[in-house]
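Write out the bound-state structure for magnesium ion.
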Amino acid sequence: MKPKFSPPAPGKPRLTTSAMIASIAADGQATKPAPFGHALVEIASTRPDIVGMTADLGKYTDLHIFAKAYPDRFYQMGMAEQLLFGAAGGLASEGFTPFATTYAVFASRRAYDFIHQTIAEEDRDVKIVAALPGLTSGYGPSHQAAEDLALFRAMPNMVVVDPCDALDTEQATAAIAAHKGPVYMRLLRGNVPMVLDEYAYSFELGKAKLLRDGRDVLVISSGILTMRALEAAKALAKDKVSLGVLHCPTIKPLDVETIRREAAKSGRLVVVAENHTEIGGLGEAVARDLMLNGIHPAFRHIALPDEFLGAGALPTLHDRYGISTEAIVATIKGWLG
Amino acid sequence: MAELPNKSLADRAYHIRRNAVLMGEVQGQGYIAQALDIADVLAVAYFHAMTYRPEDPEWEGRDRFLLSNGHYAIALYAALIEAGILPENELETYGSDDSRLPMSGMAQYTPGMEMSGGSLGIGLSIAVGKCLGLKRKGSSSRVYTLFSDGELDEGSVWEAILSAAHHKLDNLIAIVDINNMQADGPSTQMMGFEPLKEKLEAFGWFTQRIDGNDLDAVVAAFDAAKAHPGPQPRMIIADTLMGKGVPFLETRDKSHFIRVDAHEWQLALQALDAGRSA
Ligand SMILES: Cc1ncc(C[n+]2csc(CCOP(=O)(O)OP(=O)(O)O)c2C)c(N)n1
Ligand SMILES: [Mg+2]
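---
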């Protein structure tokens, strides 16, 4: 049944928008423009094997910056994602290193078999860089890649990366360029928040990093949920709750040594927080590894529900589905009782 | 609408454009230029070609209309309002939280929206299934499917084009909007698809190519598509002008998703009024 219409309440409502592109930066937050695009331009200056490719989303994946710097190393493939990744596999088989961009939904859902066959199975050196990962668009399920990590984790050979901010994105871009083999990287595009420069942090492929220690709770997180966890830690500190944050931007291969070591420290609630469906992402990966290794902390999971998500303004949706800072603070407080 | 039962098609197109501009104003941005380019096609589809009951949008005997290019939802909402399927005051909610009119057209949200769009290149596949299903039920309803020139890049579209001809789907009328625009720029620079009419004819479709902003040509094309006696699917290639009807948008630097300054919405409405009385 379709919903019934109830006329809007009188008075001017807050403007909300289900536009495709939404900012993940809070008002006044420090940001950096197009960190992936600029980083790739720099890396490519000493790497003539690198080429850029997109499926009619250059401007929306910050690859237009590469296209402008290296017009003869850029391929506009049209809005044809299966072709994009098949051709990327072909270019890689001839010795080139394609960075191929589209939205996460189309890389994961539309082109999955093409990536599986032409890139992963042949172990090709293709970097899949995908914008609007997890819930970062208010446009509705067609543009909400809630399950992208699960899908690419399940693909043999694939390295899966979920950066947190502009600094992470720049450094991860260099790291995946240096890595030989297929990579799926979640892309934060446009004006991307800068958060990790406040911490003694650098991105290393395959490594989880403790950003802050805490006595009561350890949050293991990736992507923008690390940013949220850090904000939640500051808020909870006011209530005398001490929350540690272990940032785990490489989802596969997982840094199990660090995760086991930190999770085994007794007396802490372990919470995995991810911008992803509760099925098949970081949470299940961590839980499985801890179980297999006899590490049994009190364990909780902050993730998107197993349902088609709504259309609406991104802040509204992050509140609704429990991944805004406020929602995370409230949830953790509830668990601590 | 009820108070003006004999409105001309030009009037219908005017109201569709006006509704779209009013929705655009709610958000200050959007796929306005597309709504303006496709208004004439929608006017003919909804007020000349198709059979439906505004009060019962799921009436079994209706012709089906699939919006494959879901980002054109603003245009379809404008037509559904003009058709009386949606109430006019609902346009104030366009794109807002809890609205039935999200920016991307979705079947679960909106009466009269037959498919969930957003992921492009899918509508024609659904159309093939609907046409097969209608034939199987012995129904004489038709399936109209609107899609965009960007969708011509997707392999899935060509799979459906082959399939519709293979299955002799004479109950399918597809309309492709050639507005020469995609997300990264002009369609011709993304992936060439010309000569399109010859291609589609070679693929077995009864194909017409028209100026999609010439109402008489659009009417003639829909009439011919319905009347064509052969056992083929029917394609209308509609060349359109983005921003049509609002001269300052017609000539503005074209782009897929436009922001319009607050004071310009009123100017846009005035331009539509001027064009109407001209
Ligand atoms: C399968 C798929 N790939 C990419 C996109 C992102 N996207 C949204 S609109 C668009 C442009 C498509 O061309 P067209 O519909 O002709 O654009 P318009 O005429 O509206 O400017 C793209 C690439 C999408 N929605 N679906
Ligand atoms: Mg177009």
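---
The CA atoms of residues 133 and 139 of chain B lie 9 Å apart.
Chain B touches chain A through 43 residues (CB under 8 Å).
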